[in-house]
Amino acid sequence: MLPRRHEPDLAGLAAFTLDAAGRVVSWSVTATALFGKPPRAAIGRDVCDVLMTGPGQRELVGRALAEVAAGRVWSATVAGGSLGEGRFAFRWEPMAGSDGAVLAVAQRAWPQHAPSWLSEATARIGSSLDLTETAAEVVGAAVPGFADAAGIYVIERLLAADELASPRAGPGAAVRRLAARLSAPVEADGTGQVEATAGPPLPPGEVLVLRADSLRAQAMATGQPVLSANGQQGAAGCTSFLAMPLIARGAVVGCAVFGRAPASPAFNPGDVALAGALAARAAVGIDNARLYDRERRTAQALQRGLLPGQPDVPPGIEVAHAYLPVGDHVVGGDWHDIVRLPDGRAALIVGDAMGHGPEAAAVMVQLRTAAHTLAELGLPPGQVLRKLDAMAAAMDTAATDPAGTDPIGTLAMAAGTAAPFATCVYAVIDPSGGPSGIAQAGHLPPVLVLPGGATEVLDLPPGLPLGLGAGSFQVTEFRLTPGATLALYTDGLVESRSRPIDDGLAALRGALSSALAEPGSTLDGACRAVTRLLYEHGEDDITLMLARTRQ
Are 109 and 145 in contact (CB under 8 A)? Predict the structure, then answer.
């Protein structure tokens, strides 16, 4: 959500009415105070003779009366002529139940106190790290108080290839429009100086190739502001243009362009200084947003690579799994995998690397990849764990658990080594009902849920965690009867500071029994229900995998 934009002081609001021909019918006290003209100097006279005597303002009034006669509201910011010094925002609209009468509302829009205006604008620019929102904040600060039209453009290669050091910033450079804003309908010209249409502003995201005579190309190539050389009215309806380069960290990242209509005063050196201060703050905000967007995309790509892909489950086996990282992390030390073996069986793997966050994830992804490769070779569970143990012992990683919530981390610190530690359970399931094998390395024992809802904890040799050089891991055979469900999980599901592990195991068994015994329940639904129930007490990553053979 964008911050509230600066609006002119409502105390300067004034109203008066016109007839269909543009003659003043009524003149309020506030109009006298705002314009310094008494009612006798205004009522009965053409508004062009009272206020709109500046260059191009009579034509502007003609267009305004035509808009109101068609039942539409007209608004613009005008200056000069009988209005005196400053710029005023006008809104004309048809009066209901009258014969073409016009209600006119006016408000002083410029000059505003420059230091205050600029400090307020720069304070809110960059409050968002979203590129489009940041650019919108800049044009929102500039229009209508400073200009009638404004646009923000960024060099496309900075966004597509992150080339900050030497992007091409001259003629022929491709730029992306991030935001555009106008205070009154301004038609697009053919020179690429100010682009806006009568109607909604041009949408952000369009990529344009600059022409050699574009003010933006000149400003970006020279790194200096470029002011239009003449006051002739262009196809855009503006007579004064100002292009400011956006320079961040010593490099040109884009350009801001401003335009003023004929009814507004032309840009002067003081305006160039104000635009320069605005552009300097805008460049930093936009480049910060660009860098944040790059880091966010990098993190998302890494996260997608760390998360498990779609498993290849062999026929005859039904598998459901859930993973919930702790805190704000997207991935952590937990992993799970399902590997289809050449003989039709399936290897189920659940592991937990010490710690949380990116350090644990770095260890996890290495162990998960190695376990998957070893499983595809058809190695027995004990041999797979032995090779993972050797691999973990050879790693040189400073994975830590500063919160002290991971028992594996406590063991690692006691061992006095920098090698990462992890627990793992590895099961091979035979869907034909033959004997299945399972081994674990310091992991919590699996839970078996029988078809009637009764549960039992498999009595397995616990083994030492991976990375301690245990050398061997004992394999236990069991049979997964049709309709029975095997539950593999990590300690985050059953253990916390406030809940002993025995209580957590009892809660897990009760939740599994209830979820799987529910009439019409599915394995996926049971997996979600159990993790949702037990996650309320979670202080660690949570992984749960359920597997059963089809009846």
Answer: yes
